[in-house]
Amino acid sequence: MNRFIRNSVAGLLSSTMITGAAFAAGTHPETGEALADDQTFTYRILDEHSSVDPQVVEDVSGAEIVRDLFEGLMNQDEDGNLVPGVATGYTVDDSKKVYTFTLRDNAKWSNGDPVTAGDFVFAWKRAVDPALSSPYAWFMELMSIENASAIIAGEKPVDDLGVKAIDDTTLEVTLSAPLPYFPQMTTHSTTFPAPQKVIAEFGDEWTKPGNIVSNGAYVLTEHLPQERSVRERNEMYWDNDNTIIDKVVALVINDENVALTRYLAGELDRTEVPAGQFPRLQEEHPDEAISFPRLCNYYYTFNVSDSGPEEFKDPKVRQALSLAVDRDIITKNIKAGGEPPAYTFVPEATAGFTVPVVEMASMSQAERDELAKELLAEAGFGADNPLTFSMVYNTSEAHKKVAVALSQMWKQKLGANVELANMEWKVFLEERGNQNFDLARGAWCGDYNEASTFLDLLQSDSGYNDGKYNNARVDELLAEAKTSDDPAPLYTEVERIIAQETPVIPIYHYAGVYMMDSDVGNWPVKNVEQNWYSKNLYKIAE
Amino acid sequence: MLGKSQKAAHLAEEITDYTAVQGRSLWQDARMRFVRNKAAMASVFILLLIVLFTIIGPYFAVWSNEEIDWNVMGDVRGMGMPSMETGHYFGVDDLGRDLYSRVIQATTTSLLVGLIGAATALIVGTCYGITAGYFGGRTDGAMMRFVDILLAIPTTLIIILLLVVAGRSFFTLFIALGAVGWLTMSRIVRGQTLALKNREFIEAARAAGVSEFTIMYRHILPNLLGVVIVYASLLVPEMILTESFISFLGLGISEPYTSLGRLIAEGAGTMGYGTLWQLMFPLTFYVAIIITMFFIGDGLRDALDPKDR
Amino acid sequence: MLAYVIRRVLTAIPTILLLIVACFFLMHYAPGGPFTSERTLPPQVLANIEARYGLDQPLWKQLWDYLYNIVVHFDFGPSFKFKDRDVNDIIAQGFPISLTYGSLSFLVATVVGIGLGIAAAIRHNSWIDYFAVGLGIAAQALPNFIMGPILILTFTLWLGWLPGGGWNGGQWPYLIMPVIALATSYMGSIARITRSSMLEVLNSNFIRTARAKGLPTRTVIWRHAMKPTLLPVVSYLGPVFVYVLTGSVFVDIYFSTGGLGQAYVGSALSRDYAVLLGVTILYGVLTVLVNLLTDLAYAWFDPKIRY
After folding, report:
1. What percent of chain A has pLDDT over 70?
2. CATH of the domain at C220
């Protein structure tokens, strides 16, 4: 029926509902592995999280914490499929616009209060309330909940939001238009319930340890900003018996090299691998260095707007530059973390996306270089008239390496004069957003597991379309895909057009490259969005 | 008799000597003393060697400072170490670029940045500090409160704004460095001036009707120079390192060009990964510059000390 | 003297006010705002956020409200980036940490630096002089971003003696590396300035006179040479003291200490206006106070200095 939920929720119910209290003997109930006595999971985060308020949080490390503290209607399993959370299941009416979720009656807040449909209604209204001004209010718009846009714009009162509690365990959501992947979106932190009483009592202070009440498998017990945050087992959690990890510690370590040193010293169970270090670490620690595909891309975008250089208005020039990029060198020699080279904008790992046959992908690099030279010559550039442009990227060791390698490829193969300019992050965003560049770095991580989260960037009126690429046919195809039952061919066609016109140069698709202590069990490497839940992990006795 | 005449001859010699000393200016005197200082002269020599190396070195380079050695870049740890055969005398950086050429280019940049930045700070800070300290009172109060404000405004903000207003260039980099460096210098100079202006010889000069400017220039400045020069020689390494922060914000030097501060920072990041040469070569040049600055500063201080005749 | 102090404290008020105004406008004219992000916010959402933080008001009104809240409520506003906390929280949490490791580092750097400098000057051109000079150079040659990784590699990974970072309420194992890293970066300079200043003083007429009178060296140095020697050192220590007290961004980054240095630089980079202003004001107040103290110290070190 719809393309996103291939496994029916009902089918999954049984597999996750294993009866608890089975690991008294210290073995994992399913795998039988011996469990460690100390069930503490410690991991590194790059930067202090923005918030642990589910409706306010906007960064990845914050969302990871919130996913442990709160539980939404639906969760994701290890493969990214939908599994029940607070809701045991849902039904959709014939118009495909009214969803009814049935909530479990044993879900409790950490203070013992039951989790009710009203808590969700409160939270969702809170998310769109201009008074709270959540930076993720747009997510509710994206979910197409009735009146969300009007409420955010201040045109309608908050109570008009298309969500209501029929009774304590029944939640009814009305959408403004059918949205096939709506249930998937209820795994996002913005849709998690919020404890009305606690927020009323403490106001802005409610997220502080001691005040905070949550309905997930963990409660926040300690928060030392810029240093660490600690979450511990929530005894009131409905599935507490099946939770193995007792305590999760997130350590803020800004420098990735220091983080790796501390990992090797045994202070961490998980940290990111710095670019280029994966092969060596894999050799030295074969059980610990892991790499898996992620739902993110890395690209350079041409400025094809009026303020962009004249040269880039010619598709041949753009194509030549893209062809001359040896992606294998970048993925194997610079990143070296198992990142797949990119010839399409959408990562291959995206659900329901079939990678189209792009001509460039099947050529050898020598053939590509040859073609690139031909195209550039056709466009009128050569030794006597070299192509000259500048490229910008935000300051970072990894971005710098890629940019330098690209500029050298273009210089050596095509004789182009490339000027490199790094910028501080906010200046970079401002300049790129104002089309104040020739060629600029870009990267995008999917908001949800579907090709449109990437391709929408190339829609002519998208706020994220910094290169101002404009193609009526692409817009048309993308609009059609929104409501189509089988959009895969449409996406494939968009990718074909992009490959031809080359408004962007896809470089590679991200991989999650980690050092993960071999005693950490069940890390969801197949979840491309990396929505992981501490309650599903365990520590194996060594 | 004989003894006496010898004494007289000695005396006569001393007198002639004395008049000869009288005829030499403070600066000539200083130069002589400086030339006699072995450590300082050795440092000047080493510094000249470094400069010479940055000039001649490129002729021996096999690789340019931006060229990537594609064969080496995938396995820098295994193949990128210093070697005469590959032509990478200092090894390669993390991207497979020749460190020899990069260190030469970085040393040139950093020496310029360090010396010009410190000189800007020295000139501005000294003029400002002397004026504030000498006139004292309200002038001093206002001028020093201004310094207080500038000290407290976040450098990051000033540099970002400078980037927007003036754009990225070598020249703005020096403005930024000068803007950062002169504040502490001015406080030190002002403190010394406060102490000096009440000394007897200044009061004597004033009583003799010497103009304010001449007092500042001829009598206070020479007595300040010792401390000022020592602090300026401390500023050189500070400037070299500050440059890497300014470049981080996008105002300084952009790739493929680099500086010692940045090479050291890159090397420090990867020092645990078996590519220690990436840290050691730039660090050696940096330390050599610091040491020479130390002894040159010291030698200048000794040479310029007006009391030390 | 008292009148001077009172006058200085009173002039501090317009100074800080000027600082706030200057910083406020610089901040707002810097490109990019607190809510500029890779995910460009839809205009309506952005408008709601700006309305909530009062950023839709004219600048003068924002400045006025900001000053009003400080004076009347002692409220420095909310953080735009860390939404669970406000500026008062951030400073209350970060400042004690910076203060602890900062003042310890300052103490170590000053005591060791001045001690080395004096010893080197007294025994000019002896082995102790060379040792002091060598140590000073070594301290200067290892900037923070080398010291940090070296210390962690050595003491955490290879020797396993010390935790690799964190604060833990400032227990001593967590303090050692930050203090060493921060102290060494200033120790060399302090030793250097002390040494050259002492050499100069020892050469001056009044010391020669004191020596000629036959006073023991020890007395000459402690009674007569000490105070003038320390005058330029104090000028240098003033700004250093402020830097060190408000923490070091390098220490905070490498050792995850959670101090104010990180908050300061981080807020400038993320354009977290209120945090940046709040920390700047703290910084400004400390600068003014410390500079007042150094000016008072001048008068103590050299009684001829009058204001």
Report:
1. 95
2. 1.10.3720.10
